Please model this.
Amino acid sequence: MRVLHIDFETSSKLKIGDVGVYRYCEDLSTELVCAAWAFDDEPVQVGSWLPIDVLDHIENGGLVYAHNAAMEAQVLENFFGLTDVNIRCTSAVACYHALPSSLEAVAEFLGLEFKKDKEGAKTLRKHFKTPVCDIPPEDLEVIKAYCKQDVEVERAIHKRLGDLPSKELRVWKLDQLMNSRGITVDLPLAVRVMDIVESAKGDLNEILMELTDGLVERPTMGARIIKWLSSKGIETNTLNKEFVDKMLATELEDDVREVLLCRQRGGGSSTGKYQKAIDMVQGDGRIRGNLKYHGATTGRWAGSGFQPQNLPRGNVNDTDALADEFLRGDINAIRRRAGNVFDGAKSAVRPLLKASEGERLYVVDYSSIEARVLAWYAGQDDLVEAFREGTDIYCLFASKVFDRVITKADKRERMVGKGAVLGLGYGMGANKFKATLSGQGMEVSLDFAQGVVDTYREAYPSIRQLWYDLDNGAVQAVQSGESKDGKWFTEGHTLVYTLPSGRYLRYQNCGLFSNRFDKPAVQYDRPLGKNLIRSDSYGGKWCENVCQAIARDVMADSMLDLHDNGYKLLLTVHDEIIIEDNSQNPDFTLSSIEGIMSKARNWCSGLPLAVEGFHSFRFKK
Model:
C-alpha cells in the first residue's frame, strides 16, 4: 500500500496555543504558507498547494502519516475540503513508546540522521502572523525548507517506531473522534462570570489600597503583600494556598485577616477557564481538542486545550442553580451559595460545559477503580470479595486501625481509612501519609501514621508482596533480558512490562543503580514535556504504574464498546466517561451505559468493577 507523509506550515492572526487547532484552522485569517509531501521513500516535494495525485490519494482513502496529525487533518478539511482522512500520527506512536511527543525530541532520542531545522523554526516563528503575501521571498524559501525537513524527520520516525498496535489504533481513532466532536460551552455564562469577577476584583483592589496605605494595589501583587505583612510582624517568603489557609485559621489582627482574605479570593486566576472557553469556542458553540492520547506513560489520557482533567472542585453542590444565578447577575444569591463570587466562579466552571439543545450529558464514573485493580491484581482475595459485596472499604480498614466498628457516621475515622486505602497501596510511608492527612485538615502524630502504615501492610500482605515481585522482576529483566515470571523483558535498553490486556508499558534507557537499601534498582528516562528526565524506581512506583495502566485499559475497552454500541462519547475525565445522547428514556440509557462499563472483559475476569453515573443538562461532579 502506498503511504503519503505530509506536513503544512500556516500563518494566522490567531495563536494556535490560545485557541486550539480546530478554532485556528477554521479562522478566515489562517493561511496556508506551504505544504511538503512524499510518497513512501520518494524525494520530499514542497509547494504552496497540494498537487492532484496527492489529493486523489487522500480522497480515495490512501494512508497518510503526519506528526501531531490533528493539525494536518484540520488543514485538509478546512483548506481542501477533505474529511474522514485515513491518517496516522507518529506523535501518538512516540507517546505509546514512552517518548516525548515533539518531533524534535523524538528525533533527538532516536539519534536520527534527520533533525529538526532549528534555524528554519526561528524564521517560521517570525512570520506566525504575517500574511503570506507579505513574507519576504528569502524567508519563504527558508520556511519551505523547514517544512520539507519536517517530512524527512517524520518519515524517519515512522520507519523506526512503526505503527500503533491494532487495538491501540482503534483507541487513538476514537480519541481523535472525541476531540473533533468537542463539547458545547455556555458562552453567555462565561462572559457573565468574567464580568462579575472583574467587578468584584475592583472592590478588592479598593480594600487593599485602603488597608495597606496604597502599598498593595491588587491581590496578585504577592511581593508587596509579603512586604506589608513583614511590617505587621509576619515573616514569610510565600503566599501559597497552604500558607494563607494556615494563617487564616489563627488569631490575626483585623487588617491582616482582610488582606489575606483579599489575597485568597483574588490572587489566583478564577476566570482562566472561562477565557480559554471563549478563545476556543467555534461557530457551533463547541470547544474541541480537549484530550491528549497517551498523555501519561501508563497510557492514561491527559488534558489539552480547555484541560477538562484540571477543573476546580469548588465549594458548591448545586452548581446548576449557581450557573442560573450567575446568568441572572444575582450577586447576593451567589454570595449566599458560595460565600463570595470568586469561589462561586470556581464552582461554576463545570456547569460551563453542557449538552447541546435537545440532548443530555451522561456522566459515569468508575468507583475506586485503582484500589479495586490493586486488590485484584495482587490476589488480595479478602479485599476483592469485600469490594464485590459492596462493603464500605474505607470503614472496613478504619475498623482495623481503631479496633472497633467504624461506620460512615464516624467521619474522622473513616477519613483515615479512606486516606489509607487510596494512598498506602503504592508503598507510601508514614511521613507522607501524615502529610496527606494534614493536607485534608487532619493532624495526626507520626507514631499514629506509622501505626496505620503497619496495619495496612499486615492486613494486605499480597499487596505488599506485589511491590517486591514487580521490583525484583524489573531488576531481573535489566540484568538478564527477562524476569522469571516472563512479564518483564527488554528490547535493547528499553524495559517492557506485559499488562493483562496484552498492552505493553515501556521504560526507556534503563539501567541499574544502588538504592538507599544498597540493593539494585532500575533507573529509566521518562517524558516530561519536550524532554526526558531520569527517574528512579521502587516496588510501589511500579505497582502504581501497572495498576493505573490496567485501570486505563478497562476504561479504553469500555469506551470502544460504548462507541461500537452507537453512543456519542465526548470526553474522558480521570475515571469518568462523558456521553451526549438525545434519548427519550434517559434513565434506561444511563442504565445501559453503566451495564457496558461495569462488565469485566475476559482479560480481567474477576475484577470487581463498580460504576455510578447521572444524566444532566450541565456537567457537574
Remarks:
- The chain has a mean pLDDT of 93.
- The first strand starts at residue 3 and ends at 11.
